[in-house]
Amino acid sequence: MLHYFCVQAASDLSGYLSSEFWSRVVLQSSHDEPVVRQALVVLSSLHLEYVMTDPHSVKGSTSAEDVNKETLIQYNKALRLLRKYLGGRERPSIKVALICCTLFHCFESTRGNTGAALDHLRNGLMILGEAQTPRVHPSCMAWDSPEDMEKVTQVFSRLDLQATIFDDSRTPSLMLTSADERSGTTPCVATVVFSDLEEAHVTLIKLQNWLFRLLTTNIKYKFWPQEQLPAFIVEEKHNLEEQYKRWSQTFEEFMKQQQLQDEPDKWRGNHADQKSIQEGASALRIHYRITQMLLLASLPEDQTIFGSSPNPAAEEIIDLAETFLARTRDRNATAAAAQTPHRNFSSETGIIAPLFLLAMKCSDVHVCEKAVALLAASHRREGLYDAQMVVGIVERMTRLKERGQAARLMSRQTATGMPAEDISLEYWGAEVINEATGGVEGIAKTLNISA
Q1: Domain spans, the chain
Q2: How far apart (Å, rounded) are the C-alpha atoms in residues 277 and 233?
């Protein structure tokens, strides 16, 4: 299982960009600490089970009943080892505790056990928060190398954001921007060209964290017209839009420089064991464009962003997702350990969430149909998101629309200025969405779709 993790699972879990957390930090810690090694072996075993299971043989994601009994026994052993480690050391390592929280979060996500996964994330965020404010919360745990802690913190920044995208009523726990950055005094994108994809990724996560904190903390202003919005919201949104534009310019400048270097590197074989620059770039562009659309459509609400038909911005995301999935299929065909895996599991937010948002929010029928087709063919789980589950949600919402079961909402249609057939699934399913709690999983449960 350690060998499988090294040659395949680590790459899959890290998603569309190479990650030192998975390729170095976790492995080094597993060499030094039995509790990390136990947790790593268990996650590696479950990952192999997941990717080698035919998606047509299961209703949804891997459930508790589907997991190999021995794997569950070893998982419970890992939980006991962590409790023993934390209780038996005078100053246990913060890094070890956070790594274990991450591994357990991924284990429960793979099983589709969202509640337990979020519990592990919550525990990790609490430990991280106390470690970052030692004067307020004196910690009895030991600090580790700053470099490793930076990699661990970046993982939690992404998982925290993923949890909020999964449940948009949740405000991100971490605040990654300063007051000066939000006011426009200090630029969030403080460079003219990124040094690598990792820097671009970290900066984009920072902007997305800012975006979702802006949206969730000001939810009461969601439907207010522009002229009635408080001045501080208008100003903050303007500053965020400017930083989004700056990120795009800085990223495209990096890609121009990369293209000049790319051909010689290919001939030298430098990319043989690394993620494709193009794959990572495609994913970052997808995340940039979908969250930029969310920003432009909010505070005040602008229905034309997702409501236009045709929708060139949404079509571009669809094209990028097609390219991303094509590269994934090519990688699966040459998998070193698990030969031609049936499914893919990553801990990172990839293409499922963006495609699901397009399918639910867009009025362009062509975009919705293409997004659902890509989701159905992807056979992916990305953290809390399972492609099969969200396809079930979209299909059920589509049937609601087709059968006219949302006819009682017709009185509101005149206010939209759009014909009934052009209104998004999100509009038709407003009652279901409002009734559900817990985000995407809550919607699935309301619609009686297996998670």
Answers
A1: 1-157, 175-302, 332-451
A2: 36
